[in-house]
TrEMBL record:
InterPro entries: Fructo-/Ketosamine-3-kinase, Kinase-like_dom_sf. Pfam families: Fructosamin_kin. This is Fructosamine kinase. Belongs to the fructosamine kinase family. It comes from the Bacteria. Keywords: Kinase, Transferase. GO terms for molecular function: kinase activity.
Amino acid sequence: MAGTGSTHRVRHDDGTLAFRKTAALPGLLAFEARGLRALAGAGARVPAVLRAEDDLLEIEWIEDTGRATPQTEEAFGRELAALHRDSRPPEAGADWFGAVDGHPHRPAGSDRGQVRAWLGAAPIDLAPCDTWAESWVVRRIVPLAEQAVDAGSAPERVRELAAALAELTAGFGPDSPNTHPGAAVLGGAEPSSLVHGDLWAGNRLIDAAGRSWLIDPCAHRGHREVDLAMMDLFGGFGPGAWEAYEEAFPLADGWQERVLAYQAVPLLVHAVLFGGGYGRQAEAALEHAVRLGG
């Protein structure tokens, strides 16, 4: 999901190429730059940030002339698994969920209030939270549902389902038993990972050597199934990616059932930004999530 602004290739005096983008939304590109740097620090392959300002971002130019093959998909699955596995908290008691200023430390001074971030061009709240239920449901699903309904982009039922989901997952945290309804919806209380956060096929480049590069992140600490669900939403990834991921870093039982539930946030964002049928799709995703916890 691209934010508002322009993008183009630039050639510097020394002949090097770069990708330059501008945005009308204050802070969007700074958030993207922090995400790219956090992903790079965690070992992901991303373009280097060359210049970052409030309304301008310049990154390394990547020639995305490669094609997806069984080999590229398998390698991508392994690399994503490594990112999620190796970015988990370094010590007991250090876990949290939300926005990143670096890796892997909780941003100082941001324990309260909101942290303004973007999924595409939609503002979202990524304030650091002690529980995934608060970060994903309370700070994202509920307000996005309100926005979509108020804008007439989603049926009133979406607001009701979001409130029901918040009630179902209330109190679900690291010490909750797997019998808590939140475990069925959110996948159990596993540690957070650094996730790309907007991992649809358009945000992955393949170069001539068959290497995958990640761009345009909504990087944050969250549940790793967020990235898997986003990969599934619009397609574009071969089955070998999931198979290699599962082999390298097995997912918790029932993850396939949670894919639709984890698609609720990007579908709500699409409803807010584009309207159309996305509101009804978000309704179906939330209905599914509530059924999982019921």
